[in-house]
Amino acid sequence: LVSFALIAAYLSLRFKFDYAILAIVALLHDLLVTLGLFSILSLVTGYEADSLFIVALLTIVGFSVNDTVVISDRIRENMVKDRRSSLKDLVNRSINETLSRTILTTGTSLLVVLALYLLGGNVIHGFAFTLMVVFIVGTYSSIYIASSLVDDPDAVEVNVVEEDRAIVLELTVAPDDLGKVIGKEGRTARA
């Protein structure tokens, strides 16, 4: 939670508060998808999470936010350069300009992790496999989740509510825009 707050503070200062919230939404997507996949994997194969699994989940924070920052920075640069284009065109151009960098970075990281998986011992297999999943999911969310929400910032409504000595972040997604965020019929998510 502290890291989420610091990430949001940095992105708010560097870009806009909207971009910070969208990066956190993409990061929550990464963590939830990875945890969901490994929950299913544990039911099917009996996989047990260990300390290296937690380390791999923490790695997703840095990796995913880095990709999101690169794309958000390019969107901001293009907004300054070209004030006539629509936001949708600017976001599309920004993603296309950073796509090769994102794919090369992820591909190189995946090659290293694949080498760890194939050449490392049994102790490192779970960690390497988790990192492979994390890198793929993180790249997907940076390109498709955070960027598409920048294109339509009204798709997600964010409310911070204090409830029973806890701060609750509510993300409400309009039914028409839900396909952009999670691809299912939805509701308000609370974290």
Explain this structure.
There is one protein chain. The protein is mainly α and 191 residues long. Helix content is 73%, strand content 10%. It is built from six helices and three strands, in the order αααααββαβ. α2 (17-45) runs antiparallel to α5 and α3 (51-81) packs antiparallel against α4. The longest helix has 33 residues, at 87-119. The protein starts with a helix and ends with a strand. Residues 177-191 have low confidence and may be disordered.
Structural class: mainly alpha
Percent of residues in beta strands? 5-15%
**Average pLDDT, all residues:** 77
**Largest beta-sheet characterization:** 3 strands, antiparallel
Major β-sheet strand ordering: 1-2-3
What is the rounded Rg?
18 Å
Residues in helix, %? over 70%
The rounded distance between the terminal residues' Cα atoms is 10 Å
Assign an overall shape: globular
Number of helical segments? 6
Number of strands: 3
Low-confidence stretches: 177-191
Q: Summarize the helix and strand pattern as letters.
A: HHHHHEEHE
Labels describing this entry:
191 residues, 3-stranded antiparallel beta sheet, 6 helices, 3 strands, 10% strand, disordered C terminus
List the helices and strands and how they pair.
Blueprint: H1 2-14, H2 17-45, H3 51-81, H4 87-119, H5 122-151, E1 156-163, E2 166-173, H6 178-181, E3 188-190
Antiparallel strand pairs: 1-2, 2-3
Helix pairs in contact: 1-2, 2-3, 2-5, 3-4, 3-5, 4-5
